[in-house]
Amino acid sequence: xxxxxxxxxxxxxxxxxxxxxxxxxxxxxxxxxxxxxxxxxxxxxxxxxxxxxxxxxxxxxxxxxxxxxxxxxxxxxxxxxxxxxxxxxxxxxxxxxxxxxxxxxxxxxxxxxxxxxxxxxxxxxxxxxxxxxxxxxxxxxxxxxxxxxxxxxxxxxxxxxxxxxxxxxxxxxxxxxxxxxxxxxxxxxxxxxxxxxxxxxxxxxxxxxxxxxxxxxxxxxxxxxxxxxxxxxxxxxxxxxxxxxxxxxxxxxxxxxxxxxxxxxxxxxxxxxxxxxxxxxxxxxxxxxxxxxxxxxxxxxxxxxxxxxxxxxxxxxxxxxxxxxxxxxxxxxxxxxxxxxxxxxxxxxxxxxxxxxxxxxxxxxxxxxxxxxxxxxxxxxxxxxxxxxxxxxxxxxxxxxxxxxxxxxxxxxxxxxxxxxxxxxxxxxxxxxxxxxxxxxxxxxxxxxxxxxxxxxxxxxxxxxxxxxxxxxxxxxxxxxxxxxxxxxxxx
Length: 492
Known about the structure:
By secondary structure, this protein is of the alpha+beta class.
């Protein structure tokens, strides 16, 4: 039996990496310090617990996030299979019931014979793990990396961390809402009536905006600089950028019509947290207001006057490394190539992207254990584009990023011709090219693929903007990950 790969961190990246390795016959020791050692944000000891949003972003196959999901499904992703099993209505997004999702992932890995789950805190990086004795180590400790591991990484990399502040949106009890003032609808009717909407007229919006500006907020420690990720700004930070900034951001009313048939001045959307619709989170309402202030200000929203808050918005430091300075395209630390970093620690942003890095590392390590020379995933795929961002960005100005088509290489002339039907046609051309290149890469590596998700992307450039794209949403394919997620136990 070969030596196991040690994975530190049972979040989305670590869990996906463990699954990819175990199903390829590579033994895994997965270290997760919770619940022995808690974090400020997690509530349970389950693997892959979601602490911020419950959304894995767009599921539209033309969207870069939708493309990334389908690429991951082609390799039998546990995280995506579990998300589909635990999905809750969220329009064109893929959102989940957090508890069911985490339970599925935990059950699949805890029940897999190739995975040893250890509940312990790893506090250092040994000389063996640093590459001297060929021990493979994947560090996927996430944005809340423990102080001991952070210090060990600092010693290994020889540089300070970069960081930004990430904020968590509030959650309210459904039964505390005044439903007579709210209405069900998704923007442009996508996905049905999946969101609960609180409409504001101009006067109520200006009152709410003024209250945000006056609210008392938590400030960073003196030795820390408040650097917010642009895709996840606190609601009060957005309010400071101008009176209409919120109306063009999380409170935009476009694509919605109130019960009177008119478009509101502004809208707060609430997305269900559980299948039973007992709790809702305020979409895009991450906050660093003090909790008493949050209750006062957010109860100004129509329908939330008596809201009971299950969780208030929070702020936490999100730790990540300067990846272009330290990682190669296969996520190996250049100074210690048997050590790999995965997840948000690398500088990708988001649940989906974090899981994707774990999947890629699992593929690479699996190939290495077969004695194969690893060819990196093509940069024209969503999986490869993430690594391209991490390794080719300017290290002087490196910032975390969600997957987006700006990270991909430009289209060649033939692909560009197929994509000259506006933005949708261009997206379809990116997706078609990615599907072709991923299938070709997998064939060269002799890696089996689940064909359905990639086949669904074929011909998109010719159907972009039509009902034909709806057929591209991949159905479940009966893969081992899907079966394990549904059963709550592992599959080899």
